[in-house]
Amino acid sequence: MERRATFRTPLLPWLLVLPQLLIIFVFFYWPTGEAFVWAFTLEQPWGGGRAWVGWQNFAEIFSSVHYWHSVRISIVYALGTSLLAIGSALLLALFVDREVKGSRHWRIALIWPYAIAAPAIGMIFRFVFDPRAGVFSMLNQMMPGLWDPSLNGTHAMLMLILAGAWQLVAYNFVFFLAGLQSIPRGLTEAAAMDGAGPLRRMRDIQVPLLAPTFFFLLVINLTDSFTNSFGLVHIMTDGGPARSTDLMVFKIYADGFKGLDYSGAAAQSIILMLLVVLLTFVQFRFVERKMHYR
Amino acid sequence: MVERRPLLDIFTHLLLLLSALALLLPVWLAFVAATQDLAGVSRIPINWLPGPHLWENLQEAWTRGGFATRFTTSLIVAVGVTLGKIVLAMLAAFAIVFFQWRARMLVFWAIFLTLMLPLEVRIVPTYAVAANALRPFQAILDATGLTALVQMLTGIEISLEWRMLNTPAGLILPLIATATGTFLYRQFFLTIPEELVEAAKMDGAGPLRFLRDVLVPLSRTTMAALATILFVYAWNQYLWPLLVTTEPERATVMVQLSRMVPRGDALPQWNIVMAGVLLAMLPPLAIVVLMQRWFVRGLVQTEK
Asked: Do the beta carbons of residue B235 and residue A117 sit within 8 Å?
């Protein structure tokens, strides 16, 4: 980013970045730092003493059965959502890219779910999967107890994963399509000349060339599933039944704001932060590789 | 298309149609539910086709949810985040790309690092800051002993306080504290040929003039792309507004949605709730559908 022609006014750049620096200092760096302080201290809610306790908060978390359960189901949720969303998006993008008649319309028909907020789609899925009102009421009438996410933890998790994947499909689709359209036409045409049919070309040309996009999306999807699941959980299951959907972000919220255990919530935040940072580092390894379709 | 494959084309259309329908299905069911009366929505088996009650359900949801004020709040937040982020991002990126100053790389990394951690993972302390936005400065004054010094000299105890709970600022500012836009603008500014800068300098234009007359007009497409993404992002926020709006009156549309179903075991009035959902998801949906081109561009460029 070196440039020869630049302005050399000493004060002005500071004035220009000052608003942004102020905001990220107050709302990013300070809270992040405070999370670390809280994680190693025990603080009374809203003032009072704050005693240094070392690793005690972490020790408590790591010895908690509920926390490990939360980590486990978060991983299940993240993997389930990401793989389902990436798989279906890849399939759709491959076929939309075939530029059949009206593929522009197909594109818009597949992108709009991105606009739907987590609480909205959560509420919709909760209605659709409501054992007493939605599609499943009929099944339940024939076979009572066949489907009930408010009692059965597996059902609740399944419902959550479906909703999460539904939300991510559109995003992944946009990236896969962008990736596909950056593949030089010559490659496809050469392969066609050599007698490779469309399916063969998908398998041997398009999918391998999409590998960087795939890894990029995998990391983004995993990060998103770990950090962004709060809206769905809060609306659809509220962590239940019996903690079966008590995902990590939701647990931070529940422990911190409902249980008023700030230090425990801060320590959990630190662990989640480390996880996200780890995923981000993995992503940076692929950053330069995906630059080719800029 | 490279070759003609009528059979595969039919299969393609069929697959896409089925997937589009599968994606649409939940929303269709929600729409159908919003057009029924209470008896219709709880009928077994369910209705697959719309009924005649859409308008009255929408009206009922609108008044019951107090959506008039909620929509105003959400609109203020969405527009505030969009404008705020665009302006801040452009100014910061301008300073980073077009000026030669010593702290440049340091500032760049300080801003860039914020891309790493989403708001959700530092939610608890951020809430404490929103309860008093001047808390960091107070803590610094306390720690450096300035508070004690001033109190000793003047007898006045410094206690800085700016409560942001239930205010638009509290809803907007923490959502602005990331680098998405800055990074996008930086990428765009780096593509601007140096000759433009030289020409502007030659013509005697100062940096601000250059920003106003060259960069702003050139970055219109970047701005439009970013704006669509940010508007949808801000409108759809849930966790942060839920925490910051402790008074129900100040809630955003999304937060209000969660309050439309009764807690506990009572069966919600799904027809009214679904009408509320339709209302809440309409603005971002309109943006994505109407501004599809900008939206896709913004999505691919910002990488969220």
From this structure: yes
